[in-house]
Amino acid sequence: MTEANETKPKVLPWVAVLAASAALVWWWFHPGVAHQLQSRVPGADRTNQAVGGAGPAIRWNGHLVKSNGTASSLPGSWPCFRGTHLDAISRDTTPLATTWPAEGPKVLWNIEVGEGFAAPAVWKGRVYLMDYDQPGQADAFRCLSLQDGKELWRYTYSVKIKRNHGMSRTIPSIQDRCAVAIGPMCHVICVDPETGELRWKIDLASEYNTEVPDWYAGQCPLVDGHRLILAPGGDCLLMAVDLETGKPVWQTPNPRKWQMTHSSVTPMECEGQKMYVYCASGGVVGVSATDGALLWETPDWKISIANVPSPVAVGGGRVFLCGGYEAGSMMLQLAKTNQQWSVQTLFRLKPTVFGATQQTPILFQDHLFGVRPDGQFVCLDLNGKSVWTSGAANKYGSGPFLLAQGMFYVLNDSGGLSLVEASVSGFKKLAQARVLEGPDAWGPLALAGSRLLVRDLYRLACLEVGKP
Description:
CATH topology: Methylamine Dehydrogenase, Chain H
Number of strands: 34
Structural class: mainly beta
Distance between the termini: 94 Å
Shape: globular
């Protein structure tokens, strides 16, 4: 054997190692791969190239884990997105404080949660949260005690997703016999609200060809009577599901292949007809609550980014729509003539007058209240005229808000909470305090009795806001 042949076996392993290292370096720094690994801030690049698509089918290897928390006997309920009446207004009569001490409302408990904006629902002394367990790479439907934040149970199932400026961002819907939640990759689960036992599940991506929205699912489940109303996009635009069985009751055809957005479905009545209104990717639709038949549609409201706020029915057959960035807002007028529906645009506003990047406005005293893209809290009349704004000194970013006993609770991006008088005469701040560390305190608020639940990107806190 020559010297060259004797050396060859020693050289080849080093060549293989160098080649593998070079491949790893190329994989890490290659533009396409690096782009996939970066955290995405919604709207920062004004594109629709975030993680999306049909999503992976999962085997539903679910696990229910019981813990030592116990449900409390505290009063109050906030069972779904925007509360009991789906309008972000609390009608609870528990006396609330109209001012706070310098240190702000008392923090009763706070816990770490998975990175995201998923907000809680409250039912019978329990707090429900659709969380994401990043170390375990699993969706985690959690049930906590309203009293102290201790966990009663969690139902998890494996689903691997990448960080994309948060993972979970939906709110469960809780009823006496069911607790329904939607995971980041459009997996719908129904469990027993007391025990956490799985009742049924739907994988919208694999079963209905739903395209997972940019920055993951943001649609909140709507429970109406004995039915769950979903807007999958893909094979059907909207659908009703029987709560007991998880089986479809009706489906709305989707010939234009409009896709799911972050907006949630809104029920309304007009001309004696109950319908569901939804902002899909290609426009707005209204479908019959009875059988899902398409009643009307318009492509005039179509936004490619920050299609997040839900429609607001303001009475008289009118529907208010708003979106982020350059979308602004629009008022539609519905009418029915000879069994045919028509849709007319009453007005459209620039975002400098009113728009909403994330939060759905509140209708109160025939006025709309919300946070527009420049962060100001705004009061708008139903003709599209700005009545007042909070001014440049009072900005809330994309923060959430709710209304209770004539007061708005408004949270800003960095965890600053303001108490604002609910009035059409002007902006009047009653109190303010820093209640979270931040950042990105975007998850909608929930109020049960005198307990206000707030969250930022990493933590969920419970505040006492009742009268001393």
